[in-house]
Amino acid sequence: MFFYYITANNKSMDMKSIWETSLKTQEKEYDFLKSDIRRDIVVIGGGISGILTAFGLTEQGYKVTLVEAEKLYGGVTSKTTAHICSQQGYIYYDLKKNKPEGWAKLYFSSQQQAIDEYEKLIKREKIDCGFERVNDYFFTEKNLQKLKELYGILKDIGAKVKFYDSKSVLGFDTKGVIKAENQAMFNPLEFLAQLKKIFEIFESTRILKIDMKSKILYTKKYQIKANKIIIATNYPIVKLKGAYFLKLYKSHSYAVASKEIEKSLNGIYNSDVDNGFTFREFNNKIIIGGLDHRTGRVNNNFKKQKLKEIAKECFNAEITNYWNANDVITYDGLPIVGRFSKKYKDVYIITGFNKWGMANSMASSLLITNLIAGKQNDFEKIFSPQRFNFRLGAFLSNLYVSIKNLIITPLIPAFKSYKNLKAGEGKIVCYNGAKKAVYKDDKGVYHICSPYCKHLHCQLKFNSNSKTWDCPCHGSRYDIDGNIITSPTVEKLDEN
Asked: How far apart, in Å, are the Cα atoms of 28 and each of 125, 143, 203, 486?
């Protein structure tokens, strides 16, 4: 069953999210692909965006097949903090200044519509997942003027917001707070477990290659011929087509959940620090997230300790769960959802949620369903994969990292011996005369893998916060034995 899968595939209970440890509704097991098949619409990816898209299309009368590499919603979706918000940091400030007139209002409408759709669906299907309408509080400790400008923009685009010049929030001495009404939160795994799967599903079926022209999906043994393909794999599993490596990057963040707290939190809270904190409640327990960084580019090794300190200082709470999440970031802050390219009009893509995956998963499912059905959707243009989404500074930064880790670093020999590793330490070292990615566990056992990502062979880096091998180029992640954690890679690391 699904719960067993999670237990078996995580090395430590400590790394499981609160959604995984609290899941009560058991998902049935689905078979894996056992032969070549032909299908109408195939969705790749069994996270929340893929499931909602398959569900929506099926309700419109289409025959849909969903293909998941491992188990349903066992990946990125299980690691969210599950805020369903239209208030999303400074996104509207940026859109107002950098995008055409009206885009900020359109994006806000898409997110608010998504919240409303969740509520309708949950009520209609009688899903018990703790869905709750709450206020969201976005606060700053230093950027008062910018927050005031954001407040004005939010008022102009129709958001129900209030501004407080000075308000103590969770013990933080803030310089300004925006309260947004009609936001929401829920338990995402209970929602998905109870949502009726009215479409065909294959689990443990990893797509290794996509022939865009012929619309053929290849697994290790079999192939699926499709009329339409929807790629909903967090970061796209394609390598160069569409040039998505120029439009996206991966972000890594961390979260903890606590034992029961004495006082209710009453809302969702987000700070404006670049790698700052988010707070929400679940079953009288506090969930704290944040401390973001580019995947593969860890800025410190004390993420868990910092989150534990915040839990203690703000809520006098002891933590019970610690996990990490992966988000796909776009340079303009808007998701990339729609037709993969002008050339491949029957291939669709869903990615780039910029840390707001719950609202954008619903918005994306509605957009893709409308596109396939030939119906108008007001948000097609702002989500379009073909929109201009290029920033020179970001491009040069990514180019530098790619050149360094694809070309230069792999040429540098590993001088340090694996024998010098401490327990709990992982590094690129010399092992029996060859460069290897080696982790030494607490029992002194060495876990040895290839040091190169299977996506485009970038040299990996070890993240001591999550005990994973992360790719600094495109964000693939592997566990200490080289098993895949997140895309774009589709192959596990070569073993010793």
From this structure: 18, 49, 11, 23
**Residue 142 located in a structural domain:** yes
Residue type (1 letter), 36: D
Domain extent at residue 365: 2-80+190-246+334-390
pLDDT tens for the chain, 496 residues: list them.
333 233 333 344 458 999 999 999 989 999 999 999 999 999 999 999 999 999 999 999 999 999 999 999 999 999 999 999 999 999 999 999 999 999 999 999 999 999 999 999 999 999 999 999 999 999 998 899 999 999 999 999 999 999 998 777 888 889 999 999 999 999 999 999 999 999 999 999 999 999 999 999 999 999 999 999 999 999 999 887 877 877 889 999 999 999 999 888 889 999 998 677 999 999 999 999 999 998 988 888 899 999 999 999 999 999 999 999 999 999 999 999 999 998 998 999 999 999 999 999 999 999 999 999 999 999 999 999 999 877 777 778 777 888 888 899 999 999 899 999 999 999 999 999 999 999 999 999 999 999 999 998 999 999 999 999 999 999 999 999 999 999 899 999 987 6
Q: In whole angstroms, what is the distance from residue 459 CA to residue 404 CA? A: 9
* β-strands 425-431, 83-84 pairing: unpaired
83 membership: H or E segment, kind and range: strand 83-84
Between CA 316 and CA 420 the distance in angstroms is: 39
Query: Would you say the pTM of this structure is higher than 0.85?
Result: yes
Is 208 in the same domain as 69? yes
Number of domains in the chain: 3
